[in-house]
Amino acid sequence: xxxxxxxxxxxxxxxxxxxxxxxxxxxxxxxxxxxxxxxxxxxxxxxxxxxxxxxxxxxxxxxxxxxxxxxxxxxxxxxxxxxxxxxxxxxxxxxxxxxxxxxxxxxxxxxxxxxxxxxxxxxxxxxxxxxxxxxxxxxxxxxxxxxxxxxxxxxxxxxxxxxxxxxxxxxxxxxxxxxxxxxxxxxxxxxxxxxxxxxxxxxxxxxxxxxxxxxxxxxxxxxxxxxxxxxxxxxxxxxxxxxxxxxxxxxxxxxxxxxxxxxxxxxxxxxxxxxxxxxxxxxxxxxxxxxxxxxxxxxxxxxxxxxxxxxxxxxxxxxxxxxxxxxxxxxxxxxxxxxxxxxxxxxxxxxxxxxxxxxxxxxxxxxxxxxxxxxxxxxxxxxxxxxxxxxxxxxxxxxxxxxxxxxxxxxxxxxxxxxxxxxxxxxxxxxxxxxxxxxxxxxxxxxxxxxxxxxxxxxxxxxxxxxxxxxxxxxxxxxxxxxxxxxxxxxxxxxxxxxxxxxxxxxx
Length: 508
Ligand SMILES: Nc1ncnc2c1ncn2[C@@H]1O[C@H](COP(=O)(O)OP(=O)(O)OP(=O)(O)O)[C@@H](O)[C@H]1O
Ligand SMILES: [Mg+2]
Known about the structure:
508 residues, alpha/beta, Rossmann fold, 3 domains, six-stranded mixed beta sheet, 19 helices, binds adenosine-5'-triphosphate, binds magnesium ion
């Protein structure tokens, strides 16, 4: 028998605690040279923490790391980079005002000979093109990073890693903000890398993606390794059971709203010059309406404009409350009328990262707390405790700053804000970055909200999510409604053909 080859990277007995919270415990894992190793696990399982240790950003409390069989210390990101380990984050950490070429080369720019040590722009751009070429893509290297899309930024971050000679690239949820086509393109680029012998660690909550790219998978649960297995040896059920330690409960399907249900949200001819055209929709109490469409079709814009976060140029938005119809014309009147928004970008719009879970849940002060100033903090705390319990938010307590929560748990905090006193809830990609079981849980909560008469409007780029959740699906294309499908008639093919314009005539 030939001895097993030395793994490129090995972790032995790693442990990491944050105060009383055990994030990782006795984690041992070997990554073979040239493989794509998937890391799966529920929100808060420890995936990002483990990768922070590997990339030199975080020091472990215990354990050792071996690189090609030799123990190494990774005191900082630079020393990990020097060994050949680079990480690409979900929101790539690039400098928006600098060009693509500068971002790829930053920290390693070629200089001209001479006393001024000017940057050799030509060489810098050539190196950037070469790195992008390894991924089989062309991105304009002179463009500012702020001007290119998120999918291209993702590729720029990978190219940067390659430019620094990375042999092991960690991708932590690289696809959560990408469209289906962009995901396919990224996976193709990554396969090209694997063919060149680059080793990848790949994190995603989308099991089909792991299946499409990974050779092996390691499942983490509560900071421990549950199993490492060839990807093909674990079907989705086995993966979910390993991640959650229990079988996934079947999706709770409540019925559509009763036939007599009244409209709750009334939108008439909502417009935004050049971007959104005559958007008209009623959502009845207890109804869940989905918004489908390709990237840029205007789904997020509709939600933000209804909420008043984006200015409209025409149209009427009304919410039916106890006293009759109330007009909504800006964020304040939206909140006063009981409208909530769970935005797409939780970093920019949804959360105050440095504030606690409690303060984030309470950002929209509930009416009773506003009226009784003295009770405010008690009411808020009770609300936050309830949100943590209902949504099973993994935190030590409601006084934890939100930035210390894992990505998926941050998403639940945004949702937690609107669990009570909401008449109309607008949700944009509500389960982005959320693990499979938590996603089913969130769906259950949304259906429960509907059952309590809330009207829900949900934008999602995941068609299966819309099909699982919605009574009716409105498909948008280029800022207009392209068509509408009741749940029993909606299929992915129907939705896509409306979204791409293939059947627009027939629908109208
Ligand atoms: N800086 C920190 N301070 C305190 N606790 C932290 C910190 N970073 C992470 N944690 C905790 O460590 C645990 C693991 O978090 P981690 O971010 O590694 O999870 P994850 O598997 O990446 O989850 P997700 O899928 O939601 O991104 C969580 O309970 C989290 O709250
Ligand atoms: Mg994470």
